[in-house]
Design goal:
about 450 residues; alpha/beta; D-Maltodextrin-Binding Protein, domain 2; 3-stranded mixed β-sheet; globular; Bact_solute-bd_prot1
């Protein structure tokens, strides 16, 4: 099974990296160090040359500051950092190193939904015995669940994406709309604006399957169950009633012309956001940074955005969901896993790095030392025209988030889900039909990879 999954991971359709943390670059001096190969070339300059070093791959935009902050404050170990590419560029290199059995760094930055894929290939180390207990209270149970598989911990959480609903205040004011608190209210508001000749209320982009996974979970779905204690078994249920209800709901919005079907994270979509083509944007706490970087909120559309809590399927049972987030994991190729865990748990965990991250809209930090600080909670966000978005929306959402169980073949799942969402957009399938088709595809694929599937 491990070999099959490795091949599949290398050939599956790449999913575009959707986080603000997926932008960045590097440059600078290099020194020899570490496990050898590409991982041994440091972008940063190590000044404490008498200390052991741990190699790190990562692509946060402020990674140079983060590494220097860690190294300056640490007298046990130094981080030798390289940016080998962001998102899928890094994952491709890591997959090559896994297949070759050499060339991986000691520590690697991964998006949380990628972790199970590498766990099933035995490419990551369980760090639960290497200091996790010492920092456990720094993060919520949901943050830890996202970087865990079963009872094992395979990453040190850094940032996340608690979800909310961004909206255009000018459009809401013009049409007398108040932020919907339920998805039924969302549809009612969308119909009201359409009937008045207004813009689309939102957008169903086929290229954001992670959003729709989150919304099915918000409605009570459990798409995957997996535990490395029983590595040959996986539970798959993406066509349960909760999932079908969500997909049928969005298919109905598309059919009624209430939402668009433009792929997100494209120049065309951003142009529509700037031009007021959409009244809402269902997204995550990192979205203001992404939108600002894309040129939204400047010029004529400046000061026209606000954020509200994500609408609920059942107000009697509110559920907080997440889109995105990254962590630092220790690879199984590291010859010094305990030392590597010190770096994974300590890097991007100091006050200076975390403050730089959130103040410059690079990350939404998951560290409770930040989430409970007055400076962060009470911050007036410029993109939202001074709204205290953290206090009103994102911190409560982060606090309530209970975590996901991700698939060990996430790339394949997202790629196939994208196809089904595209079929919904084209009117070729209902939401329920798309869910049934996705279920069959995933079960067949998992069986081919050697899993015993439970539904």
């Amino acid at each position: 099974m491990k070999k099959k999954l490795a091949l599949a991971a290398g050939s599956a359709l790449a999913i575009t990296c959707l986080l603000t943390a997926c932008t960045g670059g590097n440059g600078g001096e290099s020194t020899e160090n570490g496990n050898g190969g590409e991982a041994a070339s440091c972008t940063n300059t190590i000044t404490k040359t008498d200390l052991p070093t741990v190699t790190v791959w990562g692509w946060y935009p402020n990674m140079d500051k983060v590494v220097d902050n860690f190294n300056e404050g640490n007298d046990e170990v130094q981080a030798c950092w390289t940016n080998v590419g962001q998102g899928n560029d890094e994952y491709d290199k890591f997959q090559t190193a896994i297949s070759a059995g050499t060339g991986a760094p000691d520590v690697i930055m991964l998006e949380a939904d990628r972790i199970p894929n590498y766990v099933v290939q035995e490419a990551l180390v369980d760090i639960s015995g290497f200091g996790v207990e010492d920092v456990k209270d720094n993060f919520s149970a949901g943050a830890w669940k996202d970087v865990s598989v079963g009872s094992a911990v395979y990453g040190a959480p850094v940032d996340g994406g608690p979800m909310g609903m961004i909206y255009r205040t000018d459009i809401f004011d013009e049409y007398g709309i108040t932020p919907p608190t339920t998805w039924d209210e969302y549809e009612t508001a969308a119909q009201k604006i359409k009937d008045a000749g207004g813009p689309l209320f939102g957008d169903l982009g086929a290229n954001v399957p992670a959003v729709f996974m989150a919304l099915t979970i918000q409605n009570g779905a459990t798409p995957f169950t997996y535990d490395p204690a029983t590595p040959e078994e996986i539970g798959i249920k993406v066509n349960d009633d909760a999932s079908k209800e969500v997909l049928d709901y969005w298919a109905g919005l598309v059919e009624k012309g209430l939402v668009g079907t433009q792929d997100q994270f494209t120049p065309e979509y951003i142009s529509g956001v700037v031009g007021g083509d959409y009244a809402t944007y269902v997204s995550a706490a990192w979205a203001p940074g992404y939108l600002t970087g894309a040129g939204v909120g400047e010029g004529e559309d400046a000061g026209k955005f606000a954020v509200a809590p994500l609408p609920q399927w059942d107000t009697a049972n509110p559920v907080s969901v997440n889109w995105g987030g990254s962590a630092f994991s220790v690879t199984s190729q590291s010859t010094q896993p305990e030392l590597a865990a010190k770096v994974a748990l300590g890097i991007y965990a100091d006050d200076a790095s975390l403050t730089d991250g959130w103040q410059n809209q690079i990350i939404f930090p998951l560290n409770n030392n930040v989430l409970t600080s007055d400076e962060f909670v009470d911050a007036e966000v410029g993109f939202f025209n001074g709204q205290q978005a953290n206090k009103e929306v994102y911190v409560p959402a982060a606090d309530a988030y209970e975590g996901f169980t991700y698939s060990p073949f996430g790339s394949f799942y997202y790629a196939e889900f994208t196809k089904e969402l595209a079929a919904i957009n084209a009117g070729e399938k209902t939401g329920s039909e798309a869910a049934d088709s996705l279920q069959k595809t995933l079960v067949d694929y998992a069986t081919e990879q050697g899993f015993t599937v439970t539904e």
